[in-house]
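Title: Comparing notes on inverse folding

I've been comparing how different people in this forum approach sequence design from structure. To keep things fair, I'm posting one structure and asking everyone to reply with a full sequence. Here's the target:
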């Protein structure tokens, strides 16, 4: 593709394509087709949302997505049936939640209601498509809350689910 420079020095090609961020989610394969609809979190709630509030969770790497699954694991037999799904969204659609603004004890399990209030308010206000939050497992890494009700949700590009095989060393009990 050919690009031309405009009077402000930017190229027409770079103006057409905003920078995209890729996030990852490991999901039971039977739910791969609805990975980012927010239904699971709506039914059960999560660290950053109360039950009744739809939101989709994703991670900034497949490694963090793996840790997130392992942290909530009920039975290792279920790990045989996971897929990884990517989602891309415009960087301009991300709101960043500053770790310094979080309530004391935000990493506790179960998640304190103050965390859920932050996510519920963000969803209700519709401030952005994505809210970047620190991971409670690895605070220097990030998870993304994706608002499936936001008008910009249609700009998110969901990848094809791919089978995911956990390393057997992770399953030693």
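Reply #1:
Here's my take.
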């Amino acid at each position: 593709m050919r690009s031309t420079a405009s009077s402000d020095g930017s190229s027409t090609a770079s103006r057409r394509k905003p920078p995209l961020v890729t996030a990852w989610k490991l999901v039971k394969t039977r739910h791969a087709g609805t990975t980012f609809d927010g239904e699971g979190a709506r039914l059960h709630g999560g660290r950053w949302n109360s039950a009744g509030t739809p939101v989709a969770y994703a991670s900034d790497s497949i490694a963090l997505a793996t840790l997130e699954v392992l942290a909530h694991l009920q039975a290792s037999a279920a790990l045989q049936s996971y897929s990884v799904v990517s989602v891309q969204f415009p960087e301009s659609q991300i709101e960043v939640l500053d770790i310094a603004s979080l309530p004391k004890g935000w990493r506790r399990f179960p998640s304190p209601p103050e965390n859920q209030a932050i996510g519920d308010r963000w969803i209700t206000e519709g401030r952005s498509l994505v809210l970047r939050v620190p991971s409670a497992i690895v605070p220097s890494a990030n998870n993304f809350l994706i608002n499936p009700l936001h008008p910009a949700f249609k700009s998110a590009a969901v990848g094809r689910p791919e089978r995911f095989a956990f390393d057997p060393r992770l399953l030693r009990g």
